[in-house]
Amino acid sequence: MVWRLADMPDQTGRVFVVTGANSGIGLEAAKALARKGARVVMACRNLDKAAAARVEIGDGAEVRELDLGSLASVHAFASAWEGPIDVIVNNAGIMAVPFARTVDGFESQLGTNFLGPFALTGLLLPQVSDRVVTLSSGVHRMGRIDLRDPSFERRRYRRWTAYGQSKLADLMFAYELQRRLLLAGSSVRSIAAHPGYAATNLQANLGRVALTSQGWMLRLGLVQDAAGGAQPTLYAATAPDLPGGSYVGPSGPMEQTGPPRIVGSSAASRDLDTARALWDLAVRLTGVDPHLPAVAVA
């Protein structure tokens, strides 16, 4: 069965925290959720852009400050939170950026794409009643987790290597979170998604030639717009019977475009030993421990 946006159930009374909801896929997801009656909390770093985006969404949304590149900001957001959350959507991220470090000293893509969302999820998890959705990427297939040097302190920085590591880490986190939730007897589900190739401002660092080519591909239907790219996120966040531990992506050729469905992932993404070590590393680096039981690894 093909899932379409019209298949999304009514979301009246449900609360969604969507990171990076001021533009691109996050904004389109927030719009669609609000149209279905959800209360959407736009967790964004740039408050001016978020306020402008909120006008597009309407009364179903509110803006709160969150910089995933700062653990202090993550803690401040979580400390100020009151009340239940139905769904966290870990959407915000950066892609293939020049080398930089977060205020906490992490390589920026690792810190923003993985460690910040890990900490946010861990701090808010006691308030979550339904699911956590974490955005990965098809680029996870080129990723490799370097547990000894995750922040490129000794090895040479390559922006796509760093991005692939961060997106593989996101997917492994989603799978590991699901395993630990099951062991804890929790009904909360952890689900991962990827948008395929969506033409958004995430590609801003790819250069003028790449952006021009992207425009042509969009017109030819070889890539999709932000609304199309948001569909895997929306399916992952709202489909009632979607199993925990699912990975959702587009159904078209090479998972670039098309309606969402459950897709496969790399063998590395399902490495239990690395997943457990990555979880432990994230706890050490962020100081946030979700206090979920670990999967026994032989």
Topology:
Layout: E1 15-19, H1 24-35, E2 39-44, H2 47-57, E3 61-65, H3 71-80, E4 85-90, H4 108-124, E5 128-135, H5 159-183, E6 189-193, H6 208-219, H7 226-229, H8 231-238, E7 247-250, E8 260-262, H9 272-286
Parallel strand pairs: 1-2, 1-4, 2-3, 4-5, 5-6, 6-7
Antiparallel strand pairs: 7-8
Helix pairs in contact: 3-4, 4-5, 4-9, 5-9
What descriptive keywords fit this protein?
single chain; 298 residues; alpha/beta; Rossmann fold; 8-stranded mixed β-sheet; 38% helix
How much β-strand is present in the residues? 5-15%
Distance between the termini: 39 Å
Residue runs with pLDDT of under 50 for 5 or more positions: 216-220
Quick one: CATH class? Alpha Beta
Radius of gyration: 18 Å
Shape: globular
Portion in helices: 25-40%
CATH topology: Rossmann fold
Give the class from helix and strand content and strand pairing. alpha/beta
Q: How confident overall, as mean pLDDT?
A: 93
Please explain how this structure is put together.
Helix content is 38%, strand content 14%. It has a single domain (12-285), classed as NAD(P)-binding Rossmann-like Domain (Rossmann fold). The termini are far apart. The protein has an 8-stranded mixed sheet with strand order 3-2-1-4-5-6-7-8, with helices on both faces. The chain is of the alpha/beta class and 298 residues long. Helix 4 (108-124) crosses helix 9. It is built from 9 helices and 8 strands. The protein has helices at residues 24-35, 47-57, 71-80, 108-124, 159-183, 208-219, 226-229, 231-238, 272-286, and strands spanning 15-19, 39-44, 61-65, 85-90, 128-135, 189-193, 247-250, 260-262. The protein is globular, with a radius of gyration of 18 Å.
